Amino acid sequence: MDASRPNAERARRPIRRLFLLLLAAVATLAAAAFLAGGWILTRATRAALPKLMGSIPAEHGSIQRIEFAAAEFAPMATVVWSGIAIDARLKPDKGSPPKTMRIRIPNVLASLRGIFPLRFDLKLEGVRVESELHLDAPRGVPFAGGEFDTPVQRIDDGSVVLPDVEFSNSWRSSIRRELPELLAFARTGLTTRELSMSARLHFTLEHVPMSVRLETTREKGGTRLRINRQDLDSLSRRYSQPLTLAERELLAVNPLRAPMLLRMKDYAERTAHRLARTGKTYNEDSTRHVLWSFWLTRMYGPEFAEHAANAHEEGSANLPEESDRDRQNNSLGREWASAGKSESQVLALIREDPRVRRR
User: Fold this and answer.
1) Residue 355: CB partners within 8 Å, gap ≥ 6?
2) Rounded CA gap, 38 and 239, in Å?
């Protein structure tokens, strides 16, 4: 029997004990750091909030209040902020009232993507915009009033993912780098920034609560916001004359204009119907097309107005001569809008101008 083996075994015991003690100490420190990390992160975030609120350039508006319930570390190198409440005031467009938005976000997750420079993927879960949103229309536009329905009530069930956000120097520099593209996306529904978003937009149409899903698609190196086509198919069936496939596609790729376009359509139909009842001087169909095209041009320019008017004719049940007549009347509406005519002048021209094609 080798007498050296018990001695070697006795020599290794203290080493194993020391290793176990060190392992227990490291585990205890790691657990303490993990448990205390949330508290530290919460304190650090609260201290940084004033700088974060002041980092928004004044030309874009301001954050009135931002609060959160807790912050914690999660597995896979992820930080989670929960219970976020934001009150923001957007800079109004010319002639429009200030817009105040109340935003609620149950969870914001930042997952580490790289260290040099510091980069992370940002995800917002359960986003809800609680404020009723004002439709973008200059003052004095006749269909801007609430009687024409289609007010946007809220946006909820939202999810936004911003991949590869770089944090190189400070929050201020990161926000100023990301903000222009995000604002462009909010104004136009199109951005060169890679992102993904889904949400549900709630509004009323002809006094009936409606909702459509918003989603993003990647195309030509950019991200586009769209309305779900199946939801537009359901919306279309609410009209006595359903929207054509081309009209539904137009609304799908112009979600930020869609509520106002629906209002404009309703206004032109109501006004044409009212005027036609006053006598034979107004033909309902020609009045509707001229007036609708006139306001499309005033609001969004002749190119978009022509595109929208053509979408209405594509796939419609009109005979060729009926479509030709409608296109002529649409062209007159664009012409008079481009010439700076007022609505009252246009209504007089509809009655008197021989170029207006009536039935």
Assistant:
1) 328, 332
2) 54
Query: Do 181 and 270 fall within a single domain?
Result: no
Q: Which among 178, 204, 227 is the end of a domain? A: 227
Closest CA to 315 of 249, 226, 237: 249
Lowest model confidence (mean pLDDT) among 138-152, 183-197, 198-212: 138-152
Whether residues 348 and 217 fall in one domain: no
The verdict on 265 and 137 lying in the same domain is no
What pLDDT shows up at residue 31? 54
Q: Which of 110-119, 158-167, 198-207 has the highest mean pLDDT?
A: 158-167
- Asked whether residue 291 is assigned to any structural domain, the reply reads yes
Integer angstrom CA distances of residue 248 from 223, 232, 242: 20, 6, 10
3-state secondary structure of 281: coil
Domain count for the chain: 2
Q: Residue 257's pLDDT is what?
A: 85
Greatest CA separation for the chain: 124
Lowest mean pLDDT, pick from 71-80, 222-231, 246-255? 71-80
Tell me, yes or no, whether 79 lies in a domain.
Answer: yes
Residue 223 has pLDDT above 60, yes or no: yes
Residue 171 is assigned to a structural domain of this protein: yes
- CA 152/CA 282 separation, integer angstroms: 33
Taking only the tens place, the pLDDT of each residue in 256-315 is: 888 888 888 888 988 999 999 987 788 999 999 999 999 999 999 999 999 999 898 887
- Say whether both 50 and 108 belong to one domain: yes
Rounded mean pLDDT of the chain?
82
**Do residues 288 and 223 share a domain?**
no
The encoded tokens of residue 311 equal 């979408």
Domain that holds residue 178: 27-227
- Does the pLDDT of residue 180 top 60, yes or no? yes
In 50-195, the DSSP E strands lie at 61-67, 70-74, 78-90, 99-114, 118-129, 152-167, 190-191
Q: What is the average per-residue pLDDT within 69-89?
A: 89
Residue 345: inside a domain: yes
